[in-house]
Design a protein that fits this description.
Length: about 180
Amino acid sequence: ALTTAGVPMTVNTRDSHAGGVGYWLDVGDRVILELIDVQDGTTRVYFNDVHRERGLMWLTIVFAILIVLVGLVRGLFSLVGLCVTGLVIYFFILPRIIAGGDPIITTVLASVLILAVNIPLSHGFRRQSSMALVSSLVGLGLVVLFTPIFLYVAQISGLASEEAAGKVLLFLNPD
C-alpha cells in the first residue's frame, strides 16, 4: 500500500509487468506509477518503473573518481571533455535538430567543436594532437561530401519507423 496525495492506494505489481521482471523495492523507494481511471469510477494503479537518479548519481561519482585515480590529470581533462561533449549535445545539437535544422550539418558542426576541445584536453597541445585534429576534420569533411550521395543511393529518408520493420515487402510494378 502507498499514499498518493493523502489517499492510500494498493498496487499489485503482478499486473504491472511481464513475468520474470523483478525489482528490489524497500519502504521509502521512489517509484513511477500509472493511474488509470476505470469506467466504474475507480482508479487502478499500476507500477511502471523506479526512479534511478540516486543510484545513477553514485555510479557517476564512482566512475569519475576512478577515472581521475587511474588517469590523473589526463583523466581529469578527459572528464572535462566529456562534460563539454554533453553540453554541446544538450544545448546545441538537440535544440537545432528539434527546431528543424539539418541534422547532418548540425552534427558535423558540433563534432568540430567537440574535437577541437577534446583532442587537446585529452592528449595535450602537441604536434601529434594537431595532426589528429586535422585528420578528424578532413574525415568530417568527407562525411559532409559523401552523405548526400549515400542517402540517395540507399534511399534513406528518415521517414521509416521501427514499426515498419517486418511489414510485407511490396514491389512497385509499372502497370
